[in-house]
Specification:
The structure holds two protein chains of two kinds. By secondary structure, chain A is α/β, with parallel strands linked by helices. Chain A folds into two domains: 85 residues, Translation factors (Elongation Factor Tu (Ef-tu), domain 3, Beta Barrel); 125 residues, 3-Layer(aba) Sandwich (Rossmann fold). Chain A contains five helices and eleven strands; from the N terminus they run βββββαββαβαβαβαβ. The chains are: A alpha/beta, B alpha+beta. Chains A and B meet through strand 4, strand 6, helix 5 and strand 11 of A and helix 2 of B.
């Protein structure tokens, strides 16, 4: 499925009807047969463990990126080799505190799976999704998040656009919002964060929150 | 020239890789000059499910000698290493530990993390 000329979802069905058990937030490793030799590339699972017979990954076409160019060249029915799942950027049970999920561009993929799990498990803690994208035309799963927010009063979904011309992975508005709302606005340091995206913004947010007093283990992140 | 002596807990033959650190990177995975980068660039296999981006622990190694010759562990690695199976006081992630002198490492038999 094409989200934009440079972003696609690929749907992978395991051979022989196999299912891949995984925790929401994990990734799979694809072994790609490139001209330079086989390369492994990680892709977060955007699908839920409950639909483990079909795995969904989101792929950005990276300028000069042989791996993404290869994946974009594939046609339905093609075969890819993968292993997994991997990763500790997961959520299985809702935290006993306010939960904030921050995902920029394709970084929203694992967060989609995690938020669905949190909502399914119930609990009363507020859940915020800060959904970053460069432009409105590049928002993944917008209708789905909007529908979840209507169905679950404790979920607040908020779109934060970076603006045209921003480098991939950069969203100063998102960083400013996190600083204002979760660092300067109050002294509450009980919140839990899950942050995912491409580029250094992820680590800057990690350092911002931990430096402000949030516990190390309460600030989880995955930077691609 | 620096050396990485690789011991496989599985019993596979040892390897010694000799390299010039100024020629880094040697591959396209892991930090330039890291254990992973050097080994892959010299055709010595080390798992790296996340492509060397410090998102898993499949490149977990245990340092037997020369630990002082590796770059200091940063937050990224500290955060991830917690979940490495068979974690020891001398564990490092191959994709992050940059080699600055001779080291001897053991590649554990089991490197998969969930």
């Amino acid at each position: 499925m094409e989200w934009s000329p440079t972003t696609r979802s690929l749907f992978l069905r395991l051979a022989g009807g196999a299912r891949l058990p995984f925790n929401p937030g994990q990734f799979v490793s694809l072994a790609l047969p490139l001209e330079e030799g086989e390369r492994v590339r990680p892709y977060s699972l955007a699908s839920s463990p409950e639909s483990a017979d079909v795995l969904e990954i989101c792929v950005d076409l990276v300028p000069g990126g042989a791996g993404s160019r290869y994946l974009f060249s594939l046609r339905p029915g093609a075969t890819v080799s993968l292993t997994g799942p991997f990763g500790s950027f997961v959520v299985n049970e809702p935290a006993a505190a306010e939960m904030i999920f921050v995902g920029h561009a394709t970084g929203i993929a694992p967060i989609r799976a995690m938020v669905r799990r949190v909502l399914e498990r119930g609990g009363g803690q507020p859940v915020h999704v800060l959904h970053g994208a460069r432009a409105a035309s590049e928002i993944l799963y917008r209708e789905e998040f909007e529908a979840w927010a209507r169905a679950h009063p404790r979920l607040e979904w908020e779109l934060v656009l970076a603006g045209a011309g921003r480098a991939a992975g950069e969203n100063p508005r998102l960083e400013a919002l996190v600083a204002e709302r979760y660092v300067r606005a109050d002294a509450d340091r009980s919140r839990h964060f899950w942050i995912c995206g491409v580029g250094d913004m992820v680590r800057r947010l990690r350092d911002l929150l931990r430096g402000a007093g949030y516990e190390r283990r309460a600030v989880r992140y995955e930077q691609w | 020239m620096l050396k990485i002596h690789v011991i496989h807990e599985s019993g596979e033959p040892d390897h010694t890789v000799e390299f010039n650190p100024v020629e880094a990177p040697f591959s396209r995975d892991g930090e330039p000059g890291s254990i992973l980068d050097v080994l892959l660039g010299h055709r010595v296999h080390l798992e790296h499910a996340c492509g060397g981006k410090c998102a898993c622990t499949t490149c977990h190694v245990v340092v037997k000698e020369g630990e002082e010759n590796l770059s200091e562990m940063q937050d990224n690695e500290i955060d991830r290493l917690d979940s490495a199976p068979g974690l020891t006081m001398h564990s490092r992630l191959g994709c992050q530990a940059i080699v600055k002198g001779d080291v001897t490492i053991v590649i554990p038999k089991f490197t998969i993390n969930t």
